[in-house]
Amino acid sequence: MTTEATKRNEDLDVYPKGGEIRNLTGRVALVTGSTSGIGLGIARKLAEQGARVVLNGFGPADAIAREQNAIFEAFGVPAAYSAADMSKPEAIAGMIAEIVDREGRLDIVVNNAGVQHVAPINAFPPEKWDLILAINLTAAFHTIRLSLPSMYANGFGRIVNIASAHGLVASPFKSAYVAAKHGLLGLTKTVALEGAEKNVTCNAICPGYVFTPLVEAQIDDQARAHNISREAVIRDVLLAQQPNKRFATVEEIGELTAFLCGPNAASITGAALPVDGGWTAH
Ligand code: NAD
């Protein structure tokens, strides 16, 4: 979908704001699940480096249009939007075809859309298992297989899979999420090997707790439920596993993603990079 801002400025990305050279000028980037949280932070950092971005995810139309316009205003590049439901392979195929049709290329894919459900495995609803596997793992298989032809044809591609510390270690009650994120790391390595000689890299970022609006809401809820301070919730409940006792930020995840998509990361592929304050060093 194109907004007024994107229509007016279709060609602006080749003449970046202020005339400065940015690492991703001329690149076209899809970030799944980017209407909020980490995905939006990543999309903004890619746009800051000059990429034309495609947002995806759910949310109120006016809020999404505001984010599209905010990206254009701040970074001078268009931000398109696709409402494709990442649990539906045919919707993913439609979205990728539309991007390649409109832009003539797809250089960067960030698989970020993700959902969670917490329950002991003997009580884990099978339909939640299926949904989590579909969005957190199978969707990445589809975006990758469908975008590789454009990347191989151009001799350039950057794929970044947003996994989790739970791609490297487990926690109880998160069976589907842990299985999907571990699977995503396996997919990452395979795609890296297949694309290695074609200048297509594939890496995974494994965040611990990241500060998002969702986490912010949890802090107040938990503080009320346990009758403890916000500081105690952060330190002793949410960040119990995270040695540095600090949330990562969406900007930090965005910066790392933009680096992995840039020219200086050409030799980094097949990696799983923890951004977890030491959690998985335990
Ligand atoms: P979030 O809930 O703020 O954002 C999730 C995004 O995915 C939203 O844009 C939502 O609309 C979209 N989405 C959900 N279902 C979708 C579907 N079926 N189709 C298309 N879009 C869909 O979550 P977040 O915290 O920003 O998490 C983003 C990613 O980072 C997830 O893969 C998550 O597992 C991972 N992660 C998050 C944390 C954290 O602490 N927040 C830690 C480690 C990993």
How would you explain this protein's 3D organization?
There is one protein chain. With 282 residues, this protein is α/β, with parallel strands linked by helices. It has two domains: 4-210 and 248-281, Rossmann fold, CATH 3.40.50.720; 211-247, no CATH class. It is built from nine helices and nine strands. The strands form two sheets. The chain has a seven-stranded parallel beta sheet, with helices on both faces. A two-stranded parallel ribbon has the order 7-8. The longest helix is centred in the middle third of the chain and has 29 residues, at 126-154. The radius of gyration is 19 Å and the shape is globular. It starts with a helix and ends in a 7-residue tail after the last strand. The structure holds nicotinamide-adenine-dinucleotide.
Q: What is the strand and helix layout of this fold?
A:
Layout: H1 4-8, E1 28-31, H2 37-48, E2 52-56, H3 61-75, E3 79-82, H4 89-103, E4 108-111, H5 126-154, E5 157-162, H6 175-195, E6 200-207, E7 210-211, H7 213-226, H8 230-238, E8 248-249, H9 250-261, E9 272-275
Parallel strand pairs: 1-2, 1-4, 2-3, 4-5, 5-6, 6-9, 7-8
Helix pairs in contact: 2-3, 2-9, 4-5, 5-6, 7-8
The protein binds nicotinamide-adenine-dinucleotide.
